[in-house]
Amino acid sequence: AGEAKVPADLFDAFLENCLDNARRRGGASIGMKAALSVAGGVAVLRFENAGEPVPAAVARTLFSEPVPAEKGGGLGIGLYQVARLAAQSGYAIDLEANEPGRVVFRLQPA
């Protein structure tokens, strides 16, 4: 536990995008959870969904270029835009886990 100052707009955009993508990829009943951890003044936000993994070809460029919506199953341009916002704020997004039933996106200081 602890305290950390975070860019609220970035954290909001990250969560909104993750929620939208999970709903598009897995439907309204897909399991989702978000967790914020703070240690030493550093905040890390994770978003996990119980859906299908991101295809390997898409995962390789997910945060570095827009993904055609039909190829990414709803991932589209959102994560690319949020990743750019993260970089401008000194943060980075990665795909911490990518397996059936456990897909975890992580937002943390770069």
- Rounded mean pLDDT score: 88
- The arrangement of helices and strands along the chain is HEEHHHEE
Helix content: 25-40%
| N- to C-terminal distance | 20 Å
Radius of gyration: 13 Å
Low-confidence parts: none
Report the principal-axis shape: globular
Count of individual beta strands: 4
The multimeric state of the shown protein is single chain
Name the beta content range.
25-35%
Strand arrangement within the widest β-sheet reads 1-2-4-3
Q: Largest sheet at a glance?
A: 4 strands, antiparallel
Structural class assignment:
alpha+beta
* Count of runs of 4 or more consecutive helical residues: 4
Write up this protein.
By secondary structure, the protein is α+β, with helices and mostly antiparallel strands. 35% of the residues lie in helices and 30% in strands. The longest helix has 19 residues, at 8-26. The model has no long low-confidence stretch (mean pLDDT 88).
Q: How are the elements arranged and paired?
A:
Blueprint: H1 8-26, E1 32-39, E2 42-49, H2 56-59, H3 69-72, H4 78-88, E3 91-99, E4 102-109
Helix pairs in contact: 1-4
Summarize the structure.
35% of the residues lie in helices and 30% in strands. Helix 1 packs antiparallel against helix 4 (78-88). It has helices at 8-26, 56-59, 69-72, 78-88; strands at 32-39, 42-49, 91-99, 102-109.
Features:
about 110 residues; alpha+beta; four-stranded antiparallel β-sheet; globular
